[in-house]
Amino acid sequence: MSVVLESMSIAIEEALVAKNLRGMASVRPTLKAGYCARAAKTLFSAKGVVLIGTGFPVTDTFETDGPLGAIALYQALETVGSTPYIVCGAPLSKALRDDYRIVEIEVGKHAYQEQEARAVLEDLQPSVVLSIERPGQAEDGNYYNMRGEDISPRTACFDTFMRQASCPTIAIGDGGNEIGMGNVVEALKTLDIVAAATTCDELIVADVSNWGGYGLITLMGHLAKRDLLAEFNPTETLQYLSKLGSVDGVTRLNQLTEDGLDSSVGDALILELRALSGFDVS
């Protein structure tokens, strides 16, 4: 990795956790610096299928954090020549299936979770498997939200995809209960969270998981010499998700926010990320 790319990556990694909303600033130093660039290079070179697992159940629907970043990554990956699929359970799978390539996975615990993942992996032969804001199984095998509530009956299992994949795996999370956080178990012990145990090859931490996706897109744009993040419209996509029934994961309300933050906060971060990567944001 070039010195320029590594320094750019580190600056982006710092920006992604600057607000430290859920303790990810204390987790970041335990990761090997340059993780955003390493993950972005993996995605940029993946010219085949990329599986993007997302969808965190909130009440009887899905939250804005995760699907927003997944759609942004989907669009960026298509632009650089990959074939992305969004992997999720209902109701998100049914909400998105008319507009995106979707792999629907079964919600709730069932005996064929391993077979379900194996069949998809064998069929699509992905170059990368990526998780963004997917609940991760805790040590007891169950799924928990930020409030410590067991949400297993409403959660589809994407952990099996990460564990069985023979290709690189990337995960993005913002609180400790998401897939990939098994990489930083010790660092999560100080946080008030039922931590996830599922690991990945490269973990990206952020204040909001969508923002971790933006960080990867920024660096993919640098590699492509194209401002990919400028081509994504977060407000338009939030409106799209809202019409499909999304809610904010913190407020549990159908509104154009991410984890309780006004969309303007995410917009400001996007401008900062684009500037850090050397693109003209004037």
Any low-confidence stretches, pLDDT <50, length ≥5? none
* First-to-last CA distance: 29 Å
Strand ordering within the main sheet: 5-4-1-6-7-8
Main sheet specs? 6 strands, parallel
Q: What structural class do the secondary elements suggest?
A: alpha/beta
Rg over CA atoms? 17 Å
- Along the chain, the helix and strand elements come as HHHEEEHEHEHEHEHEHHEEH
Write a structural description.
The chain is globular, with a radius of gyration of 17 Å. Helix 3 packs across helix 9 (209-224) and helix 4 packs parallel to helix 9 (209-224). The protein has a six-stranded parallel β-sheet. Strand 9 and strand 10 form a beta hairpin. By secondary structure, the protein is an alpha/beta fold. The protein has helices at 3-16, 24-27, 35-44, 67-79, 92-96, 113-124, 159-164, 185-188, 209-224, 234-243, 263-276; strands at residues 49-53, 57-58, 61-62, 83-88, 102-104, 128-132, 169-173, 202-205, 257-258, 261-262.
